From TrEMBL:
InterPro entries: aa-tRNA-synth_II, aa-tRNA-synth_II/BPL/LPL, Fdx_antiC-bd, Fdx_antiC-bd_sf, Phe-tRNA-synth_IIc_mito, Phenylalanyl-tRNA_Synthase. It comes from the Eukaryota. Residues 346-442 form the FDX-ACB domain. One of its GO terms (cellular component) is mitochondrial matrix. Is responsible for the charging of tRNA(Phe) with phenylalanine in mitochondrial translation. The keyword Lipid biosynthesis does not apply. It is found in: Mitochondrion matrix. The gene is HaOG214881. This is phenylalanine--tRNA ligase. Belongs to the class-II aminoacyl-tRNA synthetase family. It comes from Helicoverpa armigera.
Length: 442
């Protein structure tokens, strides 16, 4: 069997063999990840570069800002919820990021034609296995194992554009808090979680509808409203602990396949509203399928990078991955709640080179997969790629040939790049793009 992914010394041909493979699956090959072998197929699109981030666990690295924010969030939940002196939330921060499509999508009622499943947005190892696109992927298995209150913290993987706030790997905290009738309504035996038509002993008989924007049809309005109030006050409590009492925030109605009703929380930061988390009341089908049919639960998911960047004024998401002491020492042994403002070690200049190419006859400016292009640019260029922007789309009036122009912005975080060195890398990217997508450089 061919070993598709080489851990070190990636050559251009190794990178390209992966892209060619992913665009035109030939024979069966295997993907090696941490000594385990996965069969690859026409869905395989993980790249060696992406696989190199597995196990880095920035959220657990001492002195990394992501780890500091993680600890503050964990402390908030530990101190807000204790039962007889013990924290009532359990923490899972070392779950493998390799999950099945069942975990990432099906268990969460994400429809089979939902856009979040497409190959151009996820890193698939094969049709059935992918790098988790959100920490919610572990919700069902942990519920199934009998847990009721838990936090899931880890790295998640999404194919995306390239700029100062997007990186294909980021970190999330996801949580579930479930309550039985006696916990939700202590001392009020006449209040119910469920409508009388829902039978907890026969939960599969009930067709749960989400047509009513206020609640799921199985739940009572009292239970839903009380859960909503608790959920929102817990999350505002957390936001205030992180950003201070005067933080401006607002709730926005949202839609997630796995919760109903659902909301997003936005905070006002640097003159803009910024979304920091998604949350809602867990769809009862998920709880029933995973076991507990007598509880109601809320869940939420938040991104650690956004919070850390806003809290410490970190201007570029790539800095989270920096091993430069000029960066890390700024967060070394600081008091968890200290207010720290990141001081740029020094800002090295950017170099911008454009790349224009004619597409082959089978592609148009609208069908060309930008995310494939972004991954290839990052695979060849590495972390000095700061941003890739689509600059121009063009259709030749006579020949009807389609052409695209991208600007690639290069910047090293720790030193000045010379134009000659950038030109060299730019040439290599051009060569790779020609080989992988059959385009012609203009
Ligand atoms: N998984 C969602 C995302 O990555 C965020 C989210 C929303 C998580 C609602 C939740 C939730 O647990 O209940 O965008």
């Amino acid at each position: 069997m061919t070993k598709l992914f080489l851990k070190t010394n990636r050559t251009l041909s190794a990178i390209l063999s992966n892209y060619k493979y992913s665009t035109a699956a030939k024979s069966v090959a295997a993907v090696q990840i941490k000594g385990k072998e996965f069969i690859s197929d026409d869905y395989t699109n993980v790249t060696p570069k992406i696989l190199s981030y597995l196990g880095k666990n920035l959220h657990l690295q001492k002195n990394n800002p992501l780890s500091i924010v993680r600890q503050r969030i964990v402390n908030y939940f530990y101190s807000s919820f204790t039962h007889r002196g013990h924290p009532s939330f359990s923490i899972y921060d070392n779950l493998s990021p390799i999950v099945t499509t069942k975990q990432n999508f099906d268990d969460l009622l994400i429809p089979s034609d939902h856009p979040s499943r497409v190959k151009s947005d996820c890193y698939y190892i094969n049709r059935d296995t992918l790098l988790r696109a959100h920490m919610t992927a572990h919700q069902s298995e942990l519920l199934r194992s009998g847990l009721d209150n838990f936090l899931m913290i880890g790295d998640v993987y999404r194919r995306d554009e390239i700029d100062s706030t997007h990186f294909p790997v980021f970190h999330q905290v996801d949580a579930v808090r479930s309550q039985r009738k006696e916990e939700l309504f202590p001392g009020k035996p006449d209040l119910e979680i469920f409508e009388p038509s829902f039978d907890v002993n026969n939960p599969h008989m009930f067709i749960n509808s989400i047509d009513d924007p206020m609640k799921q049809s199985c739940h009572t309005l009292e239970a839903t409203k009380l859960m909503e109030t608790q959920l929102k006050s817990h999350l505002i409590g957390l936001t205030k602990v992180l950003f201070g009492d005067s933080i401006k925030y607002r709730w926005v109605d949202a839609y997630f396949p796995f919760t109903h009703p659902s909301w997003e929380l936005e905070i006002y930061y640097e003159n803009k509203w910024m979304e920091v988390l998604g949350c809602g009341i867990v769809r009862n089908e998920i709880l029933v399928n995973a076991g507990p049919s007598n509880t109601i639960a809320y869940a939420f998911g938040l991104g650690l990078e956004r919070l850390a960047m806003a809290l410490y004024k970190i201007p570029d998401i790539r800095l989270m991955w920096s091993t430069d002491t000029g960066f890390l020492t700024q967060f070394e042994n600081i008091d968890l709640n200290a207010s720290v403002t990141y001081k740029p070690v020094s800002s090295y200049p950017q170099c911008t080179n454009d790349m224009s190419f004619w597409l082959p006859p089978n592609l148009t400016v609208d069908t060309f997969m930008s995310n494939d292009f972004y991954d290839l640019v990052r695979d060849v260029g590495g972390d000095i790629i700061e941003q890739v922007k689509l600059k121009d789309k063009f259709v030749h009036p006579k020949s009807k040939k389609h052409s695209l122009c991208y600007s690639i912005i290069y910047r090293h975080l720790e030193r000045t790049l010379t134009q000659a060195e950038v030109n060299q890398i730019h040439k290599e990217i051009e060569k790779a793009v020609v080989d992988a997508f059959g385009v012609a450089i203009r």
